[in-house]
Amino acid sequence: MPQQSDKKEEILQWMHKLDIFSELVTRTEKGEYKHELDLDVILCGRNYTGGRVGPYVRLLRCEAGEQLIREGEWSMQRRARIAQQNRPAGKDNERTDDERADESEREWDGNSFFVLADGTLLIEFSNGKRWECSEQGTTVGAMMLLEGDPADYTASVPEGASATVLEFKRPAIRLLRKYPQFSKAFDEDYRDYALESVLRDVKAKAENSLRELADDAYAFMKRWKEIAGEAQFEVFDNNHVLFQPGQPITHIYMVKKGWVEVVPAPAGARAPAGSAGEPGVHYLGAGNCFGLEAASKPGATWDATATLRARTELLAVPLEALSGKPVLADAVRRIFSDFSEADQEKLLEAETKKVSEARRQEITSGLVDGTNLLVMDMDLCVRCGNCSMACHKVHGQSRLLRRGIQIERPRRPDAERLRHVLAPSVCLHCQDPECLTGCPTGSIGRYPAGQIDINPQTCIGCGDCATQCPYNAISLVVRKDEEQEAKKESDRAERKKKLWDALDRGGKLSRSWRRLKAWGVLLCRWGITPEEVAVEPSPASLGSEPLVAIKCNLCHGTPLNPGRPGQRAAYSCEENCPTGALVRVNPREYFSEISQVIGTIYVDQTHAIGRNIHKRDRPALLWHAGGILATLVAAGLSAWAAYNYGLNTPLPGTVWTLRWLTGFVGLVSIGITLLYLPRKQIYRRRAGPLRYWLLAHVYSGVIGAVLFLVHGGERTGSPLTSALMISFDLVILSGLFGFACYKLAPRIMTRIEGQPLLIEDLSHRRLELYEELRKFDAGHRELLPQIEKHIRRRFFKLSYLWRQFLWHESLTQLQARARADFDREARASKLDRAMRAQLVKAVEMAVMLRRVEALIYLHRLLKLWVAPHVAFTVLMLVLLAVHIVQVILFAVY
């Protein structure tokens, strides 16, 4: 491992020797440092909002063979890997003192870059290219740090050499880039590495494409170094106009990272841009090229407007490098066009307005730039809140707020039906996270699994990260005292033990009774909807207590993801969604309209986070197939046996009658159905996705219903048996009613609510509207006859409420129609303009109130069936137990 040094004097001496820091260490005429405050923070650290920030730098002395960065990894994995390799066999669970000390400094790793102070570093790429860097002041690790991607090269000390480097934490960038000398050198190094990276990608693509054409491949590779020497790497901010119609094409551009909005110039009688089925606005991502037509047509001009819609990195190849070289120009055009979607024919293809609008929302909102996106299909979401509860159970505070960005997108490019997707306010684990820039202590970093996480040990609760995050995904909570929490848990266990000891003085309460009591508690809680879990405490509750920032960390370090190699990642929110509405995905694969506009040179670099169960959930399909098949088999066999042998005749070769057999198998089915009950209470460990348990619950209940129907026969017998069958029928009917509610209510809700709203928001808004209407009545008594006629009689009827569910009109359309109807009648009744204006305002409030009430009723409908279903189930189980005892006694005596 590299030798570390935190001696400020030694670090400062090296900084004086490097030109990159010349402005930072400038002295005044009196011999004092001109930027002493910045130096103090970088070298020593200082107090900030009650916490400690800095220091941001340390000195590393590396010997031959030691690695600073390894290709395909974040640097945080470096020490853990070295420690694992050096650990003696059979000592996997034992840690050395060095490893324990290293764990306290892990926040440095994966969140830092290096500046070469002395010696030599070897830079190696996977294609075999390598060079030795000995220029003092060269930065290493900027690409990995700023792009949020694993390193695409290995940086190590070559054999027979050594190196001295300064390791800087990411927050130092904010201070150092204020100085032009450092900023220029830092950006140049970043561009050099980025240019090398994109040139390697293009060269590899060219080699694959021209493999069968030896002459073209030879010509291309022979002149490639010439092109690479002329190529430039450019970085532009959002909203930069890259080119406009009529401007001469001087460069061929290839997008390495970012998004470009392309609007073709109007030509002839072409339809307006953006109209359905006609050429309009196109959004193109990484890998796409522009200006290729100029490679074979000198003097060509741009025929479109290109505007950058994010921070965008481009490879720019000047056309002068291809001038007078027709073979090379043709090879460039063929290679680049092979993986780009930006050719003129593609841009003029018809595209539906729905696809274009969905793509615009996904790009401008930044969702496509996340590496692990949580999405909810609102047509499947039953608003149970179990996802938020699961997050609360795992982390102690819920980090999932069911509000966020909603996108309507076609399920398929040619489909009319839309999918209503909600990206809730939870961390996207962005490729280029803004929260990292805002952290003064470097507590936020990208960790080995790729997740962005916060180190609570170094977080000072300043809130800068929460301010920087555009998705409201970071919250501040009161820092817990671990010793106090452990003491509370110990006291709670002690009180529980004393209570049981007091009840069990005579040894009468057995362990079985305690288990039965626990099952009883679960039974009582079965189906109860989790309460809404608060994510952000109110400012009044925070007071002056120490705070800490929290956010989603993909359940890393919890029993769900203990870090076993090769184990599939599991997320508590996704695992505990009963309908499969919630899933974590790679946005560039989930949004098919986005994957269609990424050049093939980069599309292979995306990878799935998990199964896209909204597109195809194979386990669910197997559950459905198996459940339907088992139901048909059970129904068919029992009906056949009843017809041929009756209920009370032993089946051939057995002593079992059909009544006994159906009763026993039906009882097993009921037992399987009830397993959903304890599974619903498991949040902190893996127990299989809840959606599959729900399918097992439904199909086993259906099979049990079929078998008990055969078991009962034509006559139920005693009143107890009749009551049991009636209770069982009520359980089935209430369950079917709930199933219908789960299928219909969310779909109606998503079509009329616009933006997904919580029941708490709706209830609060309803009270506000009632209060506004009450004040309107009290302040406009002269309009009471008109209010009664045009508002109460029209909008507060049951038929108008039903209209909300059946017509699927948006609130804007509903209010516009109401205004038109009112205006027509108001003009006939000769109301003056002032009175009409007042009443129009009241009409709009009344329409909004009825829409809010309709949504509230739908929310309640999703929970209305739960209590009766639970009550009928408890009654059925009690009667079933009595019936079993009765049957056993009857059989014995």
Beta-sheet strand percentage?
5-15%
In total, the number of strands is: 27
> Please, what is the average pLDDT?
81
Low-confidence stretches are: 75-109, 268-278, 521-542
Helix-strand makeup class: alpha+beta
How many distinct helices?
Answer: 33
Give the strand line-up of the largest sheet: 1-4-11-6-9
Helix content bin = 40-55%
Task: Summarize the main sheet.
Answer: 5 strands, antiparallel
Can you describe what's shown?
This protein has 893 residues and is of the alpha+beta class. The chain has 33 helices and 27 strands. Strands 1-4-11-6-9 form a five-stranded antiparallel β-sheet. It has a four-stranded antiparallel β-sheet with strand order 5-10-7-8, with no helix packed on it. β21 (401-410) and β22 (418-425) form a beta hairpin. α24 (658-674) packs antiparallel against α26 (690-712) and α28 (759-779) runs antiparallel to α32. The N and C termini lie far apart (81 Å).
Name the features.
33 helices; 4-stranded antiparallel β-sheet; 5-stranded antiparallel β-sheet; alpha+beta; 893 residues; globular
Summarize the structure.
This protein has 893 residues and is of the alpha+beta class. Helices cover 48% and strands 14% of the residues.
Q: What is the strand and helix layout of this fold?
A:
Elements (H helix, E strand, L loop, with lengths): L2 E3 L2 H10 L18 H8 L2 E3 L2 E3 L3 E6 L4 E3 L7 H10 L10 H7 L8 E8 L1 E4 L5 E4 L5 E2 L1 H6 L6 E3 L6 E7 L2 H5 L3 H30 L4 H17 L1 E5 L4 E3 L7 E7 L2 E5 L17 E3 L4 E2 L2 H4 L7 E5 L3 E7 L7 H14 L4 H4 L5 H12 L8 E5 L8 H10 L5 E10 L7 E8 L8 H5 L5 E3 L5 E3 L9 H5 L6 E4 L3 H22 L7 H15 L13 H4 L4 E4 L21 H4 L6 E4 L1 H4 L1 H4 L4 H4 L14 H28 L12 H17 L1 H4 L10 H23 L6 H34 L6 H21 L4 H12 L2 H10 L3 H18 L4 H32 L1 H27 L1
Helix pairs in contact: 7-8, 7-10, 8-10, 23-26, 24-26, 26-27, 27-32, 27-33, 28-32, 29-32, 30-32, 31-32
